[in-house]
Amino acid sequence: MGKYIIQGGKTLSGVLPVSGAKNATLPILACTLIAEGTYFLNNVPALKDVEVMIKLLEHFGLKIEKIAQNSYKIINNGLQTLEAPYELVSIMRASFLVMGPLLAHRGEARVSMPGGCAIGNRPIDIHLKGFEQLGATIKTEHGFISAKAKNLIGKEIYLDFPTVTGTENLIMAAVLSKGITILNNAAREPEVEDLGNFLNKMGAKITGLGTDRIIIEGVEKLFPCEYNIIPDRIEAGTFLILSALTGGNIVIKGVNMEHLTSFKTKLEEIGINFKINGDEVQVQADLNNFKPTNIITLPYPGFPTDLQAQTIVLLAMIKGNSEMKETIFENRFRHVPELNRMGANIKIEGNVASINGPTNFQGAEVEATDLRAGACLVIAGLISSNTTILNNIEHIERGYENLVERLQAIGAEIKKSE
Ligand code: UD1
Fold first, then answer.
1. Count of CB atoms within 10 A of residue 46's CB?
2. How far is the CA of 356 from the centre of ligand 1 (A)?
């Protein structure tokens, strides 16, 4: 188990580049199962989760070659199996994204049931209900979910919740079906849109991307393509918070601020301004003038749950009382006790965290309980008065590429140790 040792309070300045979006990369990689041929993917982040998805694709028989730092050549010469094993699905829930493309391409799939995870129960009932509505028969046996469909037929579907990977799975299942599928109450996240744009480049006919009504007209055949993944809006948001708390001398590069509208508005409410120059963003922030605020996490375009933990560190630095209400996941405040150990005064009642600032963050030995909790503790460590030892950093490496090296390059004192 690795750890980060962070010496806080250093001046940070320089350019901090943003990687490709993890949550766009995973469905797009899974989608290369849908048609035979050679794909080229660029701006793929070097992450543990991406490695797991690549292993899964190799298990199905795909050949994957890294041709540059963030570019891959993926050759699909036909699938050797239609079963996703426990070892790979159990370590990454997003592995379930192979179900849609396998059903579309081969009319059959067997995927180990994803278990629970640190941030909640995370069911997949909406994915399965949607597959059934498209004509698949679903069976659960021996810890596997198997789906079969001779022909998938387009259908008008209502998603009980705009689930992100659920919408992606259903888009991928529907693209080769007969007729038209309409997904109502679909997820509007930019990553869903990116997957749709990738599929359209392959010859799919998908409209309404970025809205809650996605229309998929089934096509006979899809063709592989070359594609550039969008930048990671969650990573960009994480770095913007870090910059706001450390004087604003960091230039965050490779940002699409259009994907961060709610986040930007809430930070402006706090008193943080943004200087946007193409894909480069700098914040203008004076910690002494920040005002407390209340935030609710919601599906896109609402405030992202994946920035909740990092934003709590920001709110903890502001004089007065702020509130953060988490409505997407039921168990997503596990970073709060760790932040309190570092000096914060945060109380949790139900799904609301009540944050009393300002905080004089002090280094402590803490634990990353999940990916975004880990990112928030890195920020807290970097603004602390002394040394923080952050354990379980495997979670962080699932979602942030070469974080230590990139932070060191802007002056942070952070190192990895076994
Ligand atoms: C995706 C993101 C994750 C992000 C989350 C919410 C990927 C790989 N991961 O996860 O980083 O935090 O969106 O923005 O893209 N739900 C059901 N039934 C279902 C599916 C979901 O009840 O069949 C519930 C979940 O329990 C949760 C809520 O819907 O409470 C949102 O989950 P969902 O949007 O599916 O998240 P993921 O796609 O797993």
1. 14
2. 29
Q: How far apart are CA 361 and CA 343, in angstroms?
A: 5
Percentage of the residues of the chain whose pLDDT score is greater than 70: 98
| Residue 234 vs residues 52, 71, 151, 308, 400: alpha-carbon distances, Å | 20, 21, 38, 10, 10
**Distance from residue 144's CA to the centre of ligand 1 (Å):** 20
DSSP secondary structure string for all residues of 91-147:
T-GGGGGGHHHHHHHHSEEEEEPP--BTTB----HHHHHHHHHTT-EEEEETTEEEE
Atom of ligand 1 nearest to the CA of 329: 30
Whether residue 95 has its Cβ less than 6 Å from ligand 1: no
**pLDDT exceeds cutoff 90 at 334:** yes
Q: Which residues are catalytic?
A: 117
Token reading at 305: 């749950």
Amino acid found at 330: E
The reply to whether ligand 1 has any atom less than 6 angstroms from the CB of 47 is no
Q: How many angstroms does the Cα of residue 289 sit away from the middle of ligand 1?
A: 36
Q: Is 176 a residue whose pLDDT tops 90?
A: yes
Q: Are 101 and 172 in contact (CB under 8 A)?
A: yes
Question: CA nearest 312: which of 301, 327, 298, 326?
Answer: 326
Q: Mean pLDDT across the chain, nearest whole number?
A: 95
Q: Is 161 in the pocket of ligand 1 (CB under 6 A)?
A: yes
Q: Which residue has the higher pLDDT, 316 or 330?
A: 316
Q: What is the pTM of this model?
A: 0.97
CA 166 to ligand 1 center in whole angstroms: 8
How far is the CA of 40 from the CAs of 22, 216, 229, 303, 414, in angstroms? 17, 24, 11, 32, 34
Contact between 338 and 389 under an 8 Å Cβ cutoff? The reply is: no
CA-proximal residue: ligand 1, atom 1 (nearest): 164
Q: Which amino acid is at 189?
A: E
Listed in order, strand segments (DSSP E) in 231-271 are 250-253
> Mean pLDDT throughout 38-66?
97
